[in-house]
Amino acid sequence: DQQVKQNSPSLSVQEGRISILNCDYTNSMFDYFLWYKKYPAEGPTFLISISSIKDKNEDGRFTVFLNKSAKHLSLHIVPSQPGDSAVYFCAAIPYNQGGKLIFGQGTELSVKP
Amino acid sequence: DVKVTQSSRYLVKRTGEKVFLECVQDMDHENMFWYRQDPGLGLRLIYFSYDVKMKEKGDIPEGYSVSREKKERFSLILESASTNQTSMYLCASTSTGTDSYEQYFGPGTRLTVT
Q1: Domains of chain B, start order
Q2: B41 in contact with A at a CB cutoff of 8 Å?
Q3: Of A11, A31, A84, B48, which has the most beta carbons under 10 Å away?
């Protein structure tokens, strides 16, 4: 039972354009949502998070949008750079579960020069 | 800088062997986690620990056990390795009370069971 889903396994974008990575969830009892970035042979690194009481959080080129009614969140990267090429995981934290993360399957982003 | 280290980057073991994966963090974090990453499945939680000598099962604990004797160290044990445990294993830690719930990950151990 996949509670957090990333339905696109891969995405290819031209350098300088916008990358939009999507994530859907099935459980309304999530407290926080996070995005992680992972390069091959490295551990995931935290990118950006959003509380369930907000609908947008921005950090430089990265913006996360949360649509609670649709149970959907998205990560926008503008402008995309070749160094952004990596696997992106969205993750959700259930209420009162001490920071336990539930991850999506990941989307591999390729930014072409 | 938070640092999470894992004892091996690559490991090859035979079916039936007992395997120990070690994780150490240097930021005095209370919470530690073990995940495995498989293609198309994302990261799945095996076990986690909120304190020394405490452990909780995650989503896929079967075939694994853990040990947390010291706050900074969290070990994952495969009692009798099987080929379906071939995977990337990732350890993470986080502090209780953090605002963003960010978990810090180690570099991972690529385990192959033959």
Answers
A1: 4-113 (2.60.40.10)
A2: yes
A3: B48
- Structural domain including A69 reads 4-112
- Which helix (H) or strand (E) segment holds residue A99: the answer is none
What are the mean pLDDT values of chain A's consecutive 10-residue runs (113 residues total)? 89 98 91 93 92 95 96 97 97 81 95 95
Please enumerate residues of A whose Cβ is less than 8 A from a Cβ of B.
4, 6, 9, 31-32, 34, 36, 41-46, 49, 89, 91, 93, 98-106
What is the enclosing helix (H) or strand (E) of B14? none
* Residue-wise pLDDT tens digits, B68-100: 999 999 999 999 999 999 999 999 998 876 665
Is there a contact between A100 and B106 if contact means CB atoms under 8 Å apart?
no
Q: How far apart are CA A47 and CA B60, in angstroms?
A: 26
Which residue is closest to A44 within chain B, CA to CA?
B105
